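for the recovery benchmark. tokens below, seq after
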């Protein structure tokens, strides 16, 4: 499954202290199991929690993503 990194995503990851290797690890976990909770009203957009380096549970970050099922459908 292709992963598209948008500028706000890249900026947010870097602001949270996550490097390219960390992003690749997070993306691989999402691709392997894209079944995180859906965000109401956003037609299939999902939210995953991620660990931030040096932070406890309350310092987790969030990644918002969607999985394209076809040419014009998202889930």
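predicted aa per position
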């Amino acid at each position: 499954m292709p992963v598209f990194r948008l500028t706000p995503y890249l900026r947010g990851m870097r602001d949270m202290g996550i490097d390219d290797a960390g992003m690749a690890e997070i993306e691989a976990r999402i691709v392997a199991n894209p079944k995180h909770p859906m965000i109401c009203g956003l037609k299939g957009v999902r939210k995953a929690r991620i660990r931030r380096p040096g932070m406890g549970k309350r310092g987790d970050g969030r990644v918002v993503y969607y999985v394209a099922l076809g040419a014009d459908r998202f889930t």
